[in-house]
Design goal:
globular, 7-stranded parallel β-sheet, 24 helices, 14% strand, alpha/beta, 43% helix, 5-stranded mixed β-sheet, 575 residues, binds zinc ion, DNA polymerase, domain 1
Length: 575
């Protein structure tokens, strides 16, 4: 049996209408009818569109003339006017309260009536001020529960880091891959596209016995709550707030389903348009030939693209940034992969704020198959990070030479992460920078400065003849700190002019340059380097997160300093 998205979509709208009607204290029977109809459509075993076509909508429980007309309207136009009207007369913040678990429309209506609460912040404030416990059927415990639900909702609505999702995905896949009869399994959605943050995790699979796979999925040790469960799909919560959806689909449609659920929405809209232009209607089930209604099924995603006359578009590129046109013309870049990376040009050791010695970092890099590793400890003005005084850097240069004596197959480069001070000057004199193999220059302090000042600081660092790479060029920390204000176009212009590279910092909370700027840099002829900024051996492995960003920025091997051999790298540096 197939799991109809249309059914779920229609049911979703009707559920929402029931809640909105209740929020406005409308007729009770009307409300019940809407939720009953929604439930019936949700658990319907056939396609709602088919039912509608055959005029059988009113055979469903709860569906009378009024609701069947609205379902028809939805299937015809993609929306229901009455639903839009309800939304229009509901304050946006009030509708959001429906998403707080444990808060029904009835309670929200009362909170609105008695305390004039119209949004989440007001609700939180009222609970903290103990104004809710005085209402009928409420108490101290309800206040506590409301606060807990709000906290949970806020966490849930913050997208999680890719690096947080990754071990969850690996664990789910490893767990289900052991199941007998499981054929394909993969994560789709923004995770598959390698986005820096991920919403819910979508897992798609094909299996000969779907029910058994679903049963195993909801019983995984990591599952904390089962949100819903049907014969071919289920949703669960893991790690407090992460939602994982599993969907078992028909084998013959796996290619189109995977394409559909990988997104992005914008990419899919364009792809469907292209399909129409070529005489097909593309859905998650098949590619239907419009001339004779013949459905073509694809179990491989590659074949979907090929059939539409396109090169296979890697998931990371599916963002409506020109990829379909490029694929049509056979001009897609050959994206860089982790295997192309030959070294790491920005790591720390216990000479500054790292937690391992130079030799420990070097051995870990060797284990990853790297040819080179640049030890870039901090300069003195980054005091909290134990920046090296000039004479300490001299000592470190000797220590690295000694390490290179004993190492075989990997070269440790003398590097520094020199601070770009608030006035734009570098934290070491040029004669010291000249003694380093590689210089990364970064902004750490004074990030509140105005755009003009920050841009000026970066450009003056770029213009220094010894600076090879600008480290974490926007200073953002995902979900914690906004990027500083900077005119990136001007910075990249200067980088292109001087042959200075920009970093893609692979640290999972940084990931800057981001995908959009990386693409811009590439188009302007600026070289980049994906660096881990590791402070301990294990962190060298974050390189893969930076590679995701690079792929999303369309980067190829030739765009990256650290995809060069050691010899070519040394030639490419400014020395
Ligand atoms: Zn730094
Ligand atoms: Zn660093």
């Amino acid at each position: 049996m197939r799991d109809s998205l249309k059914n779920r979509e229609v049911a979703g709208v009707l559920y929402e209408m029931a809640e909105l009607l209740e929020l406005h204290a409308e007729n009770r029977f009307k409300i019940i009818a809407y939720s009953k109809a929604a439930r019936a459509i949700e658990s319907l075993k056939e396609d709602i569109e088919q039912l509608c076509k055959e005029g059988r909508l009113q055979s469903l429980p709860g569906v009378g003339k009024a609701i069947s007309e609205k379902v028809e309207e939805y299937l015809r136009t993609g929306q229901i006017q009455a639903h839009q009207d309800l939304l229009k007369k509901t304050p946006a913040g009030l509708a959001e309260l429906l998403k707080i678990s444990g808060l029904g429309p009835k309670t929200i209506f009362m909170l609105h009536e008695k305390l004039n609460i119209t949004n989440l912040d007001e609700l939180e404030k009222a609970a903290r001020e103990h104004r809710i416990r005085r209402l009928p059927r409420m108490g101290a415990k309800s206040e506590k529960n409301i606060l807990k639900s709000i906290e949970r909702y806020r966490k849930r609505s913050t997208r999680i880091l890719y690096s947080t999702a990754e071990p969850v995905v690996s664990e789910v896949l490893a767990y289900l891959q052991k199941m007998e009869g499981l054929e394909h399994i993969t994560a789709a959605g923004s995770y598959r596209r390698g986005k820096e943050t991920v919403g819910d995790i979508d897992i798609l699979a094909t299996a000969t016995r779907p029910e058994e796979v679903v049963a195993a999925f909801v019983r995984m040790p990591m599952v904390e709550e089962v949100l819903s469960r049907g014969p071919t799909k289920a949703s669960v919560i893991v790690k407090e707030t992460i939602q994982v959806d599993l969907r078992i689909v028909e084998h013959r449609s796996y290619g189109t389903v995977l394409q559909y659920f990988t997104g992005s929405k914008e990419h899919n809209v364009l792809l469907r348009q292209l399909a129409l232009d070529r005489g097909y209607s593309l859905s998650e089930y098949s590619l239907k030939r419009l001339s004779d209604g013949q459905g073509l099924f694809f179990d491989r995603e590659e074949d979907v693209y090929a059939h539409l006359g396109l090169q296979y578009i890697p998931p990371e590129m599916r963002e409506d940034r020109g990829e379909i046109e490029a694929a049509r013309q056979g001009r897609l870049p050959e994206l860089v992969s982790l295997m192309d990376i030959r070294g790491d040009l920005h790591v720390h050791s216990d000479w500054s704020d790292g937690r391992a010695s130079i030799i420990e970092m070097a051995r870990a890099a060797q284990a990853l198959g790297y040819e080179y590793l640049a030890l870039c400890d901090h300069s003195p003005s980054v005091g909290i990070a134990g920046g090296l005084a000039p004479e300490k850097l001299e000592e470190k240069i000797e220590a690295i030479a000694a390490v290179n004596e004993v190492l075989e197959g990997l070269t440790v480069l003398v590097g520094t992460e020199v601070d770009i001070k608030a006035d734009g000057k570098l934290d070491y004199p040029n004669d010291l920078l000249a003694r380093c193999d590689i210089v990364v220059a970064s902004v750490h302090m004074g990030q509140q400065q105005k755009e003009r000042e920050i841009t000026g600081r970066l450009i003056s660092a770029i213009e220094n003849e010894f600076v090879d790479i600008i480290g974490h060029p926007t200073g953002r920390i995902i979900n914690q700190r906004e990027p500083y204000e900077v005119d990136m176009k001007a910075v990249l212009d200067a980088a292109a002019r001087t042959g200075t590279a920009m970093e893609i910092n692979a640290y999972p909370t940084r990931l800057d340059l981001n995908d959009v700027y990386a693409r811009m840099a590439k188009d302007m002829g600026v070289k980049m380097s994906i660096n881990s900024d590791a402070h301990e051996p294990e962190q060298l492995k974050v390189m893969k997160f930076g590679v995701n960003v690079a792929r999303r920025g369309w980067l190829e091997k030739k765009d990256l300093l650290n995809a060069l051999s050691l010899q070519d790298l040394l030639r490419a540096l400014k020395r």
